[in-house]
């Protein structure tokens, strides 16, 4: 018999929802609405005076070649980080799901990097791969590679992708491992008895059953690379060299906080928000069709 909860007071359900609704309104809807309104204003660097200019900030924004370059950089960076972090996490989760001696210790060590703040993760990687002081840059130079992420845009992008991927692998690993452990072992054993090899069992049974977890992680990783990698970019390259690693979210900060263009920065944040919402909607509209619940 299905059990249902009943509230004696009609106010209590709304009172329980009020804290979450207040957090959502105060920390999401109000800042978002303020950014939309600010994108129609021309303000000085200190925000002391403002003038309504309509869509002028958007018009000027789409006339900047640097903005289109930031779009391309964001596309390359986000796709690289999402693919690498998901694939590496899935590989590690499949190995950690096996019966191994000291397996719990390995799982704990793989989860720990998620507790590191993005800025700290960026500092760790720049220390390891610093062209003169980095411990890992010396072996790279010993192989004849002129490693210089401070001056070479390709090297800087590689370093950013590696650091952002390392930061996100732990989160993806945790969910993939939970998804693997939720798959009934009897299904896999039945396939093994039928003669299916490990690779075939993974692609025909395990991976389709992981599709809800994979879909969830794709959405989360897209949001991560578009927003949460700001600290890593700021710590590792600062958008350089020559703006070659400036993504959309970092350009919002660079133009608004460093350049003093508050209206243009707000317009960029609105466009970035629209892009992420559109990508999420497309994923729910088309990618979710292939998910097997």
UniProtKB/TrEMBL annotation:
Membrane topology: Multi-pass membrane protein
Record-linked InterPro entries: MetI-like, MetI-like_sf, UgpAE/MalFG_permease
Protein name, UniProt field: sn-glycerol-3-phosphate transport system permease protein UgpA
Cellular localisation: Cell inner membrane; Cell membrane
Taxonomic lineage: Bacteria, Pseudomonadati, Pseudomonadota, Alphaproteobacteria, Hyphomicrobiales
Domain ABC transmembrane type-1: 71-283
Organism: Microvirga thermotolerans
CDD domains: TM_PBP2
Record note on quaternary structure: The complex is composed of two ATP-binding proteins (UgpC), two transmembrane proteins (UgpA and UgpE) and a solute-binding protein (UgpB).
């Amino acid at each position: 018999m299905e059990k249902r909860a009943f509230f004696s007071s009609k106010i209590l359900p709304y009172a329980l929802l009020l804290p979450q609704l207040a957090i959502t309104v105060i920390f999401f809807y109000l800042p978002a609405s303020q950014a939309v309104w600010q994108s129609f204003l021309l303000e000085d660097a200190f925000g002391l005076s403002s003038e309504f200019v309509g869509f002028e900030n958007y018009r000027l924004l789409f006339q900047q070649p640097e903005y289109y370059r930031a779009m391309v950089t964001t596309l390359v960076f986000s796709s690289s980080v999402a693919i690498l972090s998901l694939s590496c996490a899935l590989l590690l989760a499949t190995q950690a799901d096996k019966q191994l001696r000291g397996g719990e210790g390995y799982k704990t060590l793989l989860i720990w990097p998620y507790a590191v703040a993005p800025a700290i993760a960026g500092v760790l990687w720049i220390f390891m791969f610093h062209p003169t002081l980095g411990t890992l840059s010396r072996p790279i130079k010993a192989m004849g590679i002129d490693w210089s992420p401070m001056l070479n845009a390709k090297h800087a992008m590689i370093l950013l992708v590696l650091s952002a991927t390392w930061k996100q692998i732990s989160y993806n690993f945790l969910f993939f491992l939970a998804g693997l452990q939720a798959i009934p072992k009897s299904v896999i054993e039945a396939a093994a008895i039928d003669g299916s090899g490990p690779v075939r069992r993974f692609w025909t049974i395990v991976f389709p059953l992981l599709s809800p977890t994979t879909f969830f992680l794709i959405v989360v990783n897209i949001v991560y690379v578009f927003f949460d990698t700001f600290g890593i970019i700021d710590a590792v390259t600062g958008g350089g060299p020559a703006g070659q690693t400036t993504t959309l979210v970092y350009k919002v900060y660079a133009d608004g906080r460093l350049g003093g263009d508050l209206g243009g920065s707000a317009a960029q944040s609105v466009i970035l928000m629209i892009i992420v919402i559109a990508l999420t909607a497309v994923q729910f509209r088309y990618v979710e069709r292939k998910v097997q619940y």
